[in-house]
Every structure is written in C-alpha cells, then in structure tokens.
Design brief:
Blueprint (H helix, E strand, L loop, with lengths): L2 E9 L6 H11 L1 E7 L17 E4 L9 H4 L4 E4 L15 H19 L3 E7 L9 H13 L5 E7 L2 E2 L4 H12 L2 E4 L6 E2 L2 E2 H13 L7 E4 L5 E2 H12 L4 E4 L5 H11 L4 H10 L11 H4 L7 H14 L17
Parallel strand pairs: 1-2, 1-4, 2-3, 4-5, 5-6, 6-11, 7-10, 8-13
Antiparallel strand pairs: 9-12
C-alpha cells in the first residue's frame, strides 16, 4: 500500500545505511526524496525499486541549496556525518563541518515546516571522556533536538553489515592475519547491532509517533568486545586465528596498521579506533517496547553480511550461505 500522505526526505542515500533504508522505505510504499551531494550520483544497487525516488541535489554546507529539498517534506532522515577522509590529517576539521551542516539543516527544516527529523548517531556518554568522533555525534544530536522540529535520535555502537567499515575491518583482519597483534581497546565492551535491525528501528521510529523527540539507545542482544566479534567471525568461517594483546599500540598507530592490512582508509579507521576506548552499551532500552523487533544474534548478523558480500547490497541472504547453524 502506497503511503501517499508521507513524504520522506532521505539524506545520505548513497551510504552504508542510507542505501538500505531507501530500499526499505520503497518496500513500505513511502514517497522518498533523496538529497544527493552535487558531486555524487544516486545509483540503485540490486533489484530495481518499486518507485523511483525523487532526486534533489544540494549541499548541507550551502544552506541556499536546502529549501527545495525540504519543501513539502513530512519526515526527514539525517544520516550524514564527516567520519574522516583518506588520511588522519583530513579528520581534523570534521567536527566543525558536522556542526555547520546540522545547523543549516535544522534551520531549513524549520522554515519548510518539517514535522520530524530522525537522526542516527553514536552510542556513548559524555561522562566517559568521549572520543572526538562520538562527542561530535552527540553535538549534532543536541543541535537537531534544539529547534522546533521533533527530532528522534537513535544511538548505535558497532553496526555489522556488508560494506560497513567495522565489518570490513574485522573481515580483512581475520581473513589475512593468522596471528593478530591486538591493542587493549580490542577488549572494550560494546553492544553491536546488525544493520538490518538498525533499518528496522529507523522505519519503526517513522511509524511510531511516540518516538518523536526521544533519544534512544539501540543495540543487539549481546554485549561483546571487538575481540569477541573477531572470534565469532573466525568461528563462522572456520578460521584458526591467534589474538595476542599488547599494551603499546596507540589509536594512531592502530589506524595505520589496520590501513596496511585492510582497504579501509586510515582517516576512517582512526575515529573508529579512537571511539573504541569508550564502552558502548545500551543504558536505555525503551526502544524495545516502542519498536518491538526480533534482534539478530551476532553470529547470524556476520553470516548475513558474508552472504551479502557475494550477492550484493540490499538482498536477503539464505540460511544455507552460512557455515554454522543459526540459533533459534
């Protein structure tokens, strides 16, 4: 059924989350408008959508380009952030870019009469001496919730899915290194979540008005360290790997080391690694009552990500693609 009364703006439609959310919104029958940067082109991967989205070109750092994108929009998804560039040096200015982008977007949304904004941020408490990356995510959440538009903030830790930086780092390290020299941050606890569950929560917040204006933690059913994620990956792939902890690898050195082994740029690895010094466990589980979904165990999430690597983004893999039995 087409939801003609809901006009949804999707920012970041070419990204890891945005591309999947576009497909999910299309399957639900929403009328979607995609805000695409002037230098990008929206490419639909996998099977064709039921309805082609409207594409509007603009730049969050150029506020004069935003009014056309937000005109007539009921709900807007804010899925953009400056994680980093190709090098660590390029990450230094990201917080200021994100601050300006959020302020411009909120101002344009208020002027256009947008009812709701849904923002996906990072999980971490201010009292935990957050990394610059997580602190910036919190600042963006504060900005978006400071105006007249009802803004829902979802806060996630590690998101596991094909093409996501966290999963690709795990995959390349496990596949290429029989012995891994691991810094102490690999033992930090987090509550990783499968990308399909993130999408379900993003859709659920759109469809449940009770989530408007709230700041909600989202996570999977297990509390795990990054080392646990590597071990689960190895178990799924039947790989024998040895993890050796060492105390002296700084986040910067870790980023360069990971960049040597994986195709993920150091400028993206660095903020991820720096954020791993902070425990990222859900302290507020209201989302489970507001948007009740069946959470994906991490073994199954990794299995689906592996299948999706070969099948292409946006397609649901089969159970037979995994080397282990999924737990019921």
């Amino acid at each position: 059924m087409v939801k003609n009364d809901e006009r949804v703006l999707l920012t970041g439609p070419t990204g890891f989350i945005g591309g999947r959310l576009l497909r999910a919104l299309d399957e639900k029958g929403y009328r979607v408008r995609c805000l695409v940067r002037l230098s990008e082109k929206l490419t639909i991967r996998g099977e064709p959508l039921r309805r082609d989205p409207e594409v509007v070109y603009g730049d969050l750092l150029r506020p004069e380009t935003l009014s056309a994108a937000l005109e007539g929009i009921t709900t807007a998804y804010y899925l953009v952030h400056s994680m980093g560039g190709r090098t660590i040096r390029e990450t230094k200015a990201f917080a200021e870019r994100d601050r300006k982008a959020a302020l411009h977007f909120l101002s344009a949304a208020e002027a256009a009469g947008v009812r709701r904004i849904i923002y996906l941020g990072g999980l971490g408490e201010r009292s935990d001496e957050l990394s610059k990356h997580l602190a910036s995510r919190n600042e963006v959440a504060d900005i978006l919730q400071s105006g007249r538009v009802q803004t829902t903030v979802l806060r996630a830790a590690v998101i596991i899915g094909a093409g996501g930086a966290s999963f690709e780092i795990i995959r390349y390290l496990a596949e290429r290194l029989p012995v891994m020299i691991c810094p102490k941050w690999i033992q930090t606890r987090s509550q990783p979540i499968a990308v399909q569950d993130v999408i379900a929560y993003l859709i659920g917040c759109l469809e449940n008005e009770a989530t408007a204006g709230l700041r909600l933690d989202i996570g999977g059913p297990e509390i795990l360290s990054y080392a646990d994620l590597v071990r689960i990956y190895c178990r799924v792939r039947k790989l024998k790997r040895l993890l050796i902890p060492v105390p002296f690898l700084t986040p910067r050195l870790s980023a360069y080391w990971i960049n040597l082994v994986t195709p993920v740029p150091a400028g993206i690895v660095f903020p991820l690694v720096e954020g791993l010094k902070n425990e990222a466990v859900c302290r507020d589980n209201r989302i489970r009552d507001l948007v009740p979904i069946s959470l994906t165990p991490m073994e199954q999430a990794i299995c689906q990500a592996l299948a999706e690597e070969s099948m292409g983004p946006g397609r649901l893999p089969s159970v037979q693609s995994c080397f282990v039995s999924w737990r019921s």
